[in-house]
Amino acid sequence: MGTLQDNDDGLVFMLSVDGTHCPIEEPRPFSTEWSSHKFGGKPAVNYELGILIHKPKLVWVNGPTRPGKHNDLAVFRQKLKQALSALPGTKKAIGDSGYRGEPELISTRNGLDSKEVTQFKDRTLARHENFNQRLKCFACLCQPFRHGVDNHGYAFKACCVLVMYEVETGGTSFSDAYP
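The structure corresponding to this sequence follows.
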């Protein structure tokens, strides 16, 4: 996967960013910090993913985090904000509406975008959702995980490697964000 610095090709819009939730069994002791709105309040973990826009490459994984405690923007502010800010020049990510609040670093859909920019953002976000969906094809990520939060992190990262291997070897296509 490398680091963000290894994948800086001088582009302003560098990556798409999004969070994805995976169900887990309720950790002990009970805490609503594990509750996911995506699973009707049931326990889950959240991962923040960053995918290069100009290449089909996952370059950022942060998690697991507690979805009931931190929303996507709060998770972004924990680590990825500093990593993007540390890169030379202006670097931005494209994110969904959950990332409003950091306009210097994340561009979200807005009414001032031209038709072409709106289409570009839509393609980029759809591509990212496609990657998230491929991860959910693994049973360990789409069914409640019973082996602890730390082990879930290992399983999640292993599934990310498998999806990237499939993309890189041509086993599946990964749509281009550019037309």
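The longest helix spans residues 115-135.
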